[in-house]
Request: fold
Amino acid sequence: MRIENQAIAFIKAFNDQLKPIAAICHGPWTLIEAGLVSGRIITSYPSIQTDLKNAGAPCVDQEVVIDHGIITSRNPDDIPAFNEKIIEEIAKVNEVAHA
Reply:
């Protein structure tokens, strides 16, 4: 997906609209392509952590990380916690929209 221009444009549009963005395993590669990782703390599958660091994202080994609306997780074992955080972040956006 990281080489699909429409996918990257979609991610950038979500970022521009301050909507939550979620990426797990190798998904953060798309965030690199969209130019969204520099200065944000990210977690991912271990094999792409060097790419993230080279793009300016400090990487941590945590189940789930949220940094300015970007939700990341490491691998499928983290899916329950990942899903929970996605729901929480969407709820926050909905609360603000309806306040």
